[in-house]
Design goal:
Oligomer: single chain
Order of helices and strands: HEHEEEEEEEEEEEEH
Number of strands: 13
Largest sheet: 7 strands, antiparallel
Number of helices: 3
Shape: globular
Radius of gyration: 37 Å
Structural class: alpha+beta
Length: 208
């Protein structure tokens, strides 16, 4: 009887051990995700000032100035109202006084423009098809190397009057420039490289 009881105890213990033992857990297979291939970021084109020297090189190479893509290097603000004299410029931006009923036009920095007319002292550039062109002059007295925004009836705030689509506007510039005359024409460097137009700036010579 004791022998039978011993066998029962041993068998029970073995069963409990087999049921309560630690089971080996097989980890799930690891799935490797291939990295997503992306196109390289486009190289940002560089803008360079459209200078008198570049102008002369284009003419010498018989490149049509009307086929060049121009851009403005600063924001341009145009405003008109019942009384243009009532429009104030604060920090380079036009501020509308109460009840002045001002219409505004903004030409953002680097807006593409097209040359409509080549004149002896500059270029007339349009920034919207069918609209009035703005004159960018090559001023021998102000900035003889560049082509700058021009107008009439300048004031002490650096703004001027321009005619646009049959109406008179007062023009100012953004981006912290002190005068709309600081707005210059620029072109893309890739255009100059394509047409083998090179410009070199001399470092100057210092007296010892």
């Amino acid at each position: 009887m004791k022998r039978i009881l011993t066998i029962v105890i041993v068998v029970t213990a073995l069963m409990l051990h087999s049921c309560g033992g630690v089971k080996k857990v097989t980890p799930p297979p690891v799935k490797t995700i291939a990295p997503v291939k992306t196109d390289p970021a486009p190289v940002k084109d560089e803008y360079v000032l459209f200078t008198k020297k570049i102008y002369d090189q284009l003419v010498a190479n018989k490149i049509d100035l009307k086929k060049v893509q121009y851009y403005n290097d600063q924001d341009i603000y145009l405003a008109k109202g019942k009384e243009i004299s009532g429009i104030k410029v604060v920090n380079g931006k036009i501020v509308e006084e109460a009840g002045n009923n001002v219409d505004k036009i903004i030409i953002d920095k680097f807006t593409p423009g097209r040359c409509e007319l080549v004149e002896s002292d500059g270029l007339r550039i349009i920034f919207k098809d069918g609209s009035t062109a703005f004159k960018f002059i090559n001023s021998k007295t102000y900035l003889p190397e560049n082509f700058i925004f021009s107008g009439a009836n300048w004031d002490n705030n650096g703004t001027c009057e321009v005619e646009y689509n049959g109406a008179r506007y007062r023009a100012s510039c953004g981006g912290g420039c002190s005068s709309v005359a600081d707005v210059k024409l620029v072109v893309k460097k890739s255009f100059l490289d394509k047409n083998n137009i090179n410009e070199q700036k001399l470092p100057g010579s210092i007296v010892n």
